[in-house]
């Protein structure tokens, strides 16, 4: 992919398979999680069907920061080189600020930056295109199929004597009313349809009658693209996270995505947003106030222009631990015949809002529990349980820790104190950075004693 404009072209996904066709793996949703899962399973020898309801290139509302955790998968899947050929921003540091205006800039580890593993920011329009394009090539090469503009409507559940099993999906290509219905079956269905994934809904609400969407663990996010924002030029530098009163608990972000364009947005936990009236009840209004009236930020937007039509909201399903989980943490995300990944498994970091890394990590993890030959008669319940345990084993500490930090953000004075201390004590800055850069080796980060010692002791 030598052409820097390549990601604007349509993706050729080939003929649509006959209704009734059988696959080893069906992947519902072609975002980064679904594209990675389809690629990893195709590489492991499965015949995959990848289904996506949109047509590429398609936008996804996001902050557009692709952190270090994502980059190892992106490299493994052969997509990193493609990204580097298209316009992108290299993140060398993160600026954090709190409501009293305290600010700290934390540099990302020099070695990671040199190795190009610290992090990038680039529009999801581009990033997701490249992930999906690579998945299409790998899936078709290994005998599978890919369909764009295919909306999964129903998840097929077989209710047998020994329990329920997901056996495939039914949906339509193209227009809801005019598109012909098609059904496909598989030993394994992977839910990768994002925050409202039909597979995740079926597992939680329909089969196990457990909660799917809890307002304390869902966050609203609103994004706009701007040009000409003061202090944002060049193709390398910081991304900015501002914990300000008006968006508490949550944050206002300024993430440059290439030399000219900046992703600007706000995010806030939905249950908290509901407690407020007026401006705070609408993320769009909050953002307007910050960019036009606030003392701290409006000056930077005086000569800037919002890219028309770029203002849109979306939801982030957090991976914060539930107080009394009905079964598994953060919620049930697998059963006989199915595993969910990424947003469909509610894995977004509750402090940073980062979800791409965990989508890619969970996508790869599913390959450890499914073998197309051994499980040709259906992906068994015990493997589903093993997957859920392994997923929380892998991410539970990190997500719980981020949830604790989210608690600090809620208490404004504590947060201001935290940022002031971070500006004096580099170790605290490193903790904040770890939450974004997510170097997997930071065992210390999960120890309460380590956190206490680092934050509280002089
Ligand atoms: C405002 C905001 C800012 C964020 N900022 C960041 C950030 O800076 N960095 C970061 O890492 N993460 C960020 N996130 C989180 C990140 O966007 C998600 O975690 C990530 O997109 C998850 O990837 P996914 O593949 O699981 O789901 P998605 O990216 O949501 O992809 C799901 C795909 O499934 C398709 N689909 C849905 N339903 C169906 C259906 N019925 N049939 C067929 N296809 C279907 C959708 O069209 C979509 O393409 C942000 C999120 C928001 C909302």
Explain what the structure shows:
This protein has 458 residues and is an alpha+beta fold. It has a domain at 6-78 and 124-213 and 319-399: FAD/NAD(P)-binding domain (3-Layer(bba) Sandwich). The chain has 13 helices and 18 strands. The longest helix has 30 residues, at 381-410. It is globular, with a radius of gyration of 22 Å. The mean pLDDT is 90. The chain binds flavin-adenine dinucleotide (FAD). Flavin-adenine dinucleotide binds next to helix 1, strand 8, strand 11, strand 14 and strand 16.
Describe the global form: globular
* Terminal-residue CA separation: 52 Å
Rg: 22 Å
By CATH, the architecture of the domain at 6-78 and 124-213 and 319-399 is named 3-Layer(bba) Sandwich
Low confidence ranges = none
Arithmetic mean pLDDT: 90
What bound compounds does this protein have? flavin-adenine dinucleotide
The CATH superfamily of the domain at 6-78 and 124-213 and 319-399 is identified as FAD/NAD(P)-binding domain
Provide the CATH topology of the domain at 6-78 and 124-213 and 319-399: FAD/NAD(P)-binding domain
Number of helices: 13
* Structural category: alpha+beta
């Amino acid at each position: 992919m030598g052409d820097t404009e390549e990601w604007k072209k349509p993706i050729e996904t080939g003929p649509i398979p006959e209704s009734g066709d059988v696959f080893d793996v069906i992947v519902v949703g072609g975002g980064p999680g679904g594209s990675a899962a389809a690629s990893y399973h195709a590489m492991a020898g499965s015949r995959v069907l990848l289904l996506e309801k949109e047509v590429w290139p398609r936008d996804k509302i996001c902050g557009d920061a692709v952190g270090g955790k994502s980059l190892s998968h992106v490299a493994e899947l052969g997509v990193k080189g493609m990204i580097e050929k298209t316009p992108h921003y290299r993140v060398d540091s993160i600026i954090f600020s709190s409501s009293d205006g305290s600010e700290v800039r934390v540099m990302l580890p020099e070695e990671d930056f040199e190795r190009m593993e610290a992090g990038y920011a680039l529009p999801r329009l581009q990033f997701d295109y490249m992930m999906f394009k690579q998945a299409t090539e790998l899936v078709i090469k290994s005998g599978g199929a890919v369909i764009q503009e295919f909306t999964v409507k129903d998840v097929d559940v077989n209710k047998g004597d020994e329990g329920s099993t997901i056996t495939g999906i039914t949906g339509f290509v193209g227009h809801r009313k005019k598109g012909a219905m098609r059904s496909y079956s598989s030993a394994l269905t992977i839910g990768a349809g994002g925050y409202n994934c039909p597979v995740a809904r079926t597992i939680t609400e329909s089969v196990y009658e457990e909660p799917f969407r809890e307002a304390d663990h869902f966050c609203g996010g609103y994004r706009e693209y701007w040009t000409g924002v003061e202090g944002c030029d060049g193709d390398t530098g910081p991304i900015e996270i501002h914990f300000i009163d008006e968006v508490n608990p949550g944050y206002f972000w300024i993430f440059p995505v290439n030399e000219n364009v900046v992703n600007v947005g706000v995010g806030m936990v939905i249950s908290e947003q509901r407690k407020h009236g007026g401006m705070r009840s609408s993320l769009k209004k909050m953002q307007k106030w910050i960019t036009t009236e606030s003392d701290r930020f409006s000056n930077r937007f005086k000569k800037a222009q919002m890219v028309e039509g770029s203002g849109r909201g979306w939801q982030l399903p957090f991976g914060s631990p539930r107080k009394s989980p009905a079964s598994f943490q953060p919620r049930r995300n697998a059963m006989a015949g199915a595993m969910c990944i990424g947003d469909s498994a509610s894995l977004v970091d509750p402090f940073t809002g980062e979800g791409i890394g965990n989508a890619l990590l969970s996508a790869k993890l599913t390959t450890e529990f499914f073998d197309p030959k051994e499980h040709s008669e259906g992906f068994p319940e015990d493997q589903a349980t093993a997957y859920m345990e392994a997923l929380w084993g892998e991410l539970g500490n990190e997500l719980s820790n981020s949830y604790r930090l989210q608690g600090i953000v809620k208490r404004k004075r504590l947060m201001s104190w935290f940022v002031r201390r971070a500006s004096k004590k580099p170790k605290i800055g490193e903790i904040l950075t770890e939450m974004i850069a997510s170097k997997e080796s930071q065992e210390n980060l999960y120890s309460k004693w380590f956190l206490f010692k680092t934050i509280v002791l002089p």
